[in-house]
Amino acid sequence: MRHRQLCFLTAAILLLAIQTSQAQNSQRFQKEVDSIVAHTLSVDRHNLVVFTGSSSIRMWADLKKAYPDHNVVNLGFGGSEMADLLYFTDRIILQFRPKQVFIYEGDNDIAIGRSPEQILAAADSILLQINRQLPQTEVVFISPKPSVSRWHLKEKYEAFNKRLKAWTKQKSNVKFADVWTPMLKKDGNVREDIFLGDKLHMNEKGYVIWAAELKKYLK
Q1: pLDDT in tens, 10-28
Q2: Residue 152 lies in a domain
Q3: How sure is the predictor about 176, in pLDDT bands with cuts at 50, 70 and 90?
């Protein structure tokens, strides 16, 4: 009995240490998030659609131009991982009370070696907060995209996207948007003409593909 209690206590301490470490790590985005929120607090909340996630969202300069008939706002913060969005869920998502949320995370997670289980655990916690406070809000998880610079991780990306798609099917009011497939050539390799010089972030052509694909999910 004492052994089981000790194991439970050890696990609880380890979990707390991991959560504390992640919170400290996520705080590196504090100033950026403060700035983003300060510039968007006055946004019209009626039928609001929030796009958030890492740099592929943050750098989408023509988001509003892509969807002129929708009330969309860009709340992405570059370099973020799924756990970082979890840390800022209240400020980035909940306080805006959107009717729909598009989330792009997982790209950076995979690049630094996080497992699908770790990424989905953070995603599940984000979804739990949204469901509790905004039960009518629909959430769309965008698949991590392919890129030239991370093509050596192709199999890991494909495995995670498969897991993410299956996970969303188990949830209510949640959808999976596949941007991986339309960014590939007919031979299955990633298109090289849709990226900036760093071969990671998209140029205008890349965002045209995203705009067309994600439009299918806009309410």
Answers
A1: 544 544 444 555 555 888 9
A2: yes
A3: very high
- Decide if 39 is inside a domain: yes
- pTM, full prediction: 0.89
- b/e map of 123-142 (b: 16 or more CB within 10 Å)? bebbbeebbeebeebbbbbb
Strand order in the sheet with 100-104: 71-74, 48-53, 100-104, 138-142, 174-177
Measured CA to CA, the distance from residue 42 to residue 60 in angstroms comes to 20
Cα separation, 155 vs 139, in Å, equals 26
Largest CA distance in the chain: 63
Bridge partner residues of 195 (DSSP): 202
Domain that holds residue 201: 30-215
SS (H, E, C) 156-217: HHHHHHHHHHHHHHCCCCEEEECCCHHHECCCCCECCCCECCCCCCECHHHHHHHHHHHHCC
Q: Which residue has the tokens 């392919």?
A: 146
